[in-house]
Amino acid sequence: MEVSHSSNDERARSRTKCRELLSAHIYDRLGFVIAPVDIRLHPRPSDPYRWNILPTKAHLFRKNLSKISTGIYNQIISGIGTFIEAVQPNDTVRAESVEVTEGKNTVDNHNYNGESTSFASRIEALEGEIHEAQQAQQYWKECAEQESKSKRLSEAELSKARAWSQGVSKESKKLRQRSERLQSIVKSLKARIAISNQCLEQLILCTDRVRVINGCNSKEPLPHELSEEEHI
Fold first, then answer.
1. Whole-model pTM?
2. DSSP secondary structure letters along 28-96
3. Virtual CA dihedral for 191, 194, 200, 205, nearest 10 degrees?
4. Measured distance CA(18)–CA(21) in Å, rounded
5. What pLDDT score was predicted for residue 176?
6. H or E segment and range at residue 110
7. What's the burial of 62, exposed, middle or buried (CB within 10 Å: 0-12/13-18/19+)?
8. For labelling, which of 101, 135, 141, 194 has a CA lying 20 to 30 Å from the CA of 223?
9. Helix 2-30 and helix 70-79, axial crossing angle in degrees, nearest 10
10. 36-51: per-residue pLDDT in tens?
């Protein structure tokens, strides 16, 4: 019993607080003084206010204010000024009002004429900004993907170029080494030819000296001096 009384007391305090905050909100938004006990979630046609709520939160207004639970009171309290707002009956925004028809609660949407600066219009503007941001995000995502693709292609081409350059470098090194070997062979052959020429000159000089010593004044031709006919 004590638990039941405590729960009822908490619910009564939440209901009172909810009424007072809704009343204060109506005054702040519209300038109308409505006693907390006269606050309704389902305004009468003669009431100078309507409730503008997000469709996803419409279930909070299904029942009368006196019949909802403590949790619903707390959700309404936390939503005042965010997803719940008091508007005049002639606002252009789409006000969500709850009417009681044959004992059943139904949510009807009403369109009113006039100007509005309610949170619903701000939400609509924000949704437009979100849509633009999503489009921009998609654009930059596609740009990033294209840039990444181009980068991958460039890296592949660069890799091929590097491989080709390395191959050319190897072939160039081989040709350089071959050239160096050929130059060494040519140098060696030139040295041998020079030595052979020196030996031949020394041989001719020695032959001439031998001829002089032997008194060969007639200078009979030496074998290397004979013409081809004489050899024959």
1. 0.43
2. HHH-----GGG--SS--TTSS-EEEE-GGGGGGGSS-GGGS-HHHHHHHHHHBTTTEEEE-TT-SSEEE
3. -130
4. 5
5. 83
6. strand 104-111
7. middle
8. 194
9. 20
10. 999 999 999 999 999 9
